[in-house]
Specification:
Elements lengths: L3 E3 L2 E3 L3 E3 L8 H9 L4 E3 L3 E2 H6 L3 H8 L8 E6 L3 H14 L3 E6 L4 H5 L10 H14 L6 E6 L6 H16 L4 E5 L13 H10 L4 E5 L5 H11 L3 E4 L8 H10 L10 H19 L5 H11 L6 H8 L5 H11 L22
Parallel strand pairs: 3-4, 3-11, 4-6, 5-6, 6-7, 7-8, 8-9, 9-10, 10-11
Antiparallel strand pairs: 1-2
Helix pairs in contact: 1-11, 4-6, 6-7, 9-10, 11-12, 11-14, 12-13
Length: 349
């Protein structure tokens, strides 16, 4: 259990809750932290929205940070270096401890808008963004980068990614989260961990976190061992499974893998997630966002298909409570979910 160093911040463990658009909101982060994620990132924000949006709903969802939600990273994605600069300053004013720049999102809307993974094909533009952000925020606030191993499988793409990786460190970036897939791969096919190992060997004194194909606690431990990265950023593997952080912590501490949570423990976490979501979004406005989490929680239930199908149809907070009461009334052993490499319904990881 080596600590993770991100600039002046010392994180107690190498486990991070990744930024997941549409998922890693306040309620998800609260539960991840309770189970061992000592560092978390909020949902990615487009730079323009971060600068221009001032509605109560936007502020409550994206810019209100609980006292217990530290250290926290705010992730930005965009195309205009100047907008990035202003957006980073607003996140600092909101209380974010780290400013993270997204050069990895592979979704069509991001690439079409010259955002996210698009920048991996434009090293000069990417590095200008990094320079602008680093200059715009106080020196005690770390700037970090999330990126993939390239646009595609060509050697030219790989070289551009390594150029960006070296360049961001030269410009004062404190840590990089590196995903082992290309932008063209999106969420399909294996994540090439060998690239993470190569990158860490090239930058042994820099902080690198690994990402990609971390669906079980064993995956996380194996990535740390095989690649030498300093930490792991758990994304899709944490949706509906905050217990993954406790399981990784146990394995890294030399303890046996914990058993799956029993149904009453799952029930308590589900009810807490519902309560937190109601606080942020309101009674029924929380349901569309919560539904995506519920169908993932269902994977830990022995009757997971039936529970998942029921959760997929919920239309009110009261309905959620009824289904939790129905399916989690009898206490028995749960199950660990199988690897599920499907892409989230939305999001950049």
């Amino acid at each position: 259990m080596m600590p993770l160093q991100i600039g002046p911040l010392t994180i107690d463990s190498p486990l991070a809750q990744a930024a997941l658009s549409g998922y890693s909101d306040g309620p998800m982060r609260v539960l991840a932290r309770r189970f061992g994620a000592t560092y978390a990132l909020a949902e990615v924000l487009i730079d323009r929205f971060a600068v221009e949006s001032h509605s109560t709903n936007f502020i409550r969802r994206h810019l209100q940070i609980a006292d217990t939600d530290h250290p926290i990273g705010g992730q930005l994605m965009g195309s205009d270096p100047l907008q990035f600069q202003f957006a980073a300053q607003r996140l600092v004013q909101a209380g974010f401890d780290v400013i993270d720049i997204n050069f990895g999102c592979p979704v069509k809307t991001a690439i079409g808008g010259c955002r996210g993974g698009y920048h991996l094909g434009q090293p000069e533009a990417a590095l200008e963004i990094v320079s602008r952000v680093r200059e715009a925020v106080p020196p005690e606030i770390p700037v970090t980068v999330k990126m993939r191993r390239g646009i595609d499988e060509t050697s030219e793409s790989r070289d551009r990614a390594l150029t960006i990786l070296a360049g961001v460190f030269e410009r004062g970036v404190a840590a990089v989260t590196l995903h082992g897939r290309t932008v063209e791969q999106k969420y399909v096919g294996p994540s090439r961990w060998s690239f993470l190992k190569e990158a860490k060997a090239s930058f042994p004194n820099r902080t690198l976190l690994g990402s990609g194909d971390l669906f079980t606690a064993e995956d996380c431990v194996r990535m740390l061992a095989e690649t030498g990265v300093d930490g792991v950023s758990i994304a899709r593997g944490a949706i509906g499974n905050p217990w993954i952080f406790a399981s990784v912590t146990a394995l890294l501490s030399g303890q046996p893998h914990p058993p799956p949570p029993r149904l009453h423990e799952q029930r308590d976490v589900l009810l807490e997630h519902l309560r937190l979501a109601r606080e942020v979004y309101g009674d029924d406005a929380c349901v569309p966002r919560l539904r995506k989490h519920l169908v993932k929680y269902a994977r830990l239930h022995p009757d997971h298909a039936e529970v998942r199908n029921a959760f997929a149809k919920v239309n009110s907070a009261g309905n959620v409570e009824q289904l939790i009461s129905l399916f989690y009334s009898h206490d028995c052993e749960g199950i660990w979910p199988e690897n599920e490499p499907a892409m989230p319904t939305e999001g950049c990881t």
